[in-house]
Amino acid sequence: MTCAACVSHVSDALLSVDGVEDVAVNLATEKATLSLGESNRQSDSPVDLGILSDALKDAGYGVGTRKVTLGIDGMTCAACVSHVENALTGVQGVESASVNLATERATVEYVQGVTGIADLRHAVEDSGYSATALVGDEMDEDSAHRRLGLLKVKFAFSLASAAVIMVLMAMPTAHTLLPFRMEFVLLALATPVQLWAGLGFYTSAWSAARHFTSNMNTLIAVGTSVAYVFSVAVTLFGESSFFDGRDVDTYFDTSTAIIGIVLLGRFMEARAKRRASNAIQALMGLQPKTARIIRDDQHVDVSIDDIVVGDRIIVRPGERVPVDGVVESGTSSVDESMLTGESAPVSKHPGDDVYGATVNGRGGLVFTATRVGRDTMLSSIVRLVEEAQGSKAPIQRLADLISAYSCLPL
C-alpha cells in the first residue's frame, strides 16, 4: 500500500468476504484489523485466511508475511524432515515451511498476527521434536534497512539527474560544446531514472490494471511515461517531417523531477513508518525473553513463548516480570511506570496483580501466570497504539474516498 486509495481498495476487498463486518486499515503499520459477526467470532476458524488472501490478490495486493528460522533438534532421516514440515504447514497462518536435515533448521514463512513463534514451536514439539533456536529478527531489520537505503539512492539519483537536465536546458550555448545534439545527453540522463528508479511505479500500476483498478502509482506512471515517450520521439524524429520542421521542446526534466520528488516523499514516509515500527518494537522489547518457572518442584529457565496460563514463575530482585499474573508468595515493590507513568514503586503482596515488563524491586516474588502471549497488558497496549494509528476521523474517511477516485486515470 502506498496511498489513501490503496487503503480504500484493501478495505473494500476485505469487506467483500463473508463474515467480515468492519475493517480498519493502517497505512503506517501496513496492517488491517477485522471485525467479525457474532456467529463468526464464536467459531474456531471464523474466516479462512486463504479467502482473505485471495480477496487481497484480486484487488492487486497481498498478505504480508514474516520469515523466521527455527533450529530443530531430534531429526535423523528424511522421514523426520517430512514430519516437521507437515507439522509446520498445518499451523493456521503458515504460508510455507522448508526443513534442512543437514543444518537442522526450518525456514518458515507465516502471517504475523495470525500465528506466532510459540505456535510454531508447539507444533514442532507435538510432532515429537523440539525447536531450540530462533533466527529472523535480524534478517527482517537488515532487509528493511536495505530497502530504505535503495529508496534513498533512487530518489537522490533522480533528483540529481533532474537538476543536471534543468541546468543543461537553461544553457542555450551548451549544445555548441558537443559534437551531437543536446537532446541525446538529456535522453541518456533521463532513461535510467525512468526505467530503473521509476520501475516500482510501473509494476504497481500494472498490478492494479490487471485487476481493473488504479492507484497513485497509475497516475505517476502514466504522467511520466507520456512526458518521457514524447521527449524520446522529439529526440529521435524532431527533424523529420513528422513534426513539420517545427521546433519542439523535450520534457525530460518534467519526468525525472516528478519521479525524484515522489520517491523523496516515499523515502520520508518509509522512514516515518520504520520509526513508528521501531517504537512499537522497543515497547515489546521491554518484555524479557526468558522466565524461571517451577515445574515438578524444580526451577527451569524457559522461553517466554513457552509459558502457559497456570505456570508458577519466580521473579528475582531487579528482574522484569515476564507475563501478567497474581502474586502467590513474597513481598516486594514493582516499578510500573511503563504502564502508569508513576515513578513511585507499587508494593506487591500475595493476591496482588503483576504485569509483564514491569521491574521488580528488592524482594523476590512467586506468582501464577494468568495472561500470556497476546493477552498480556503490554500486548494490549501495543495493539491499542496500532489501532490508534489506523483510526480515522469521519472527515479523513471522506478525504480518503475522494483521493481514491482522484487516482482514476483520466
TrEMBL record:
Superkingdom to which the source organism belongs: Eukaryota
Region of interest called Disordered, as start-end residue ranges on this chain: 325-349
Cellular component annotations (GO), alphabetically ordered: membrane; trans-Golgi network
TM stretches of this protein: 155-178, 184-206, 218-238, 250-268
SUPFAM superfamilies: Calcium ATPase, transduction domain A, HMA, heavy metal-associated domain
One GO biological process term: copper ion homeostasis
Name the record gives this protein: Copper-exporting P-type ATPase
Membrane topology: Multi-pass membrane protein
Native organism: Geodia barretti (Barrett's horny sponge)
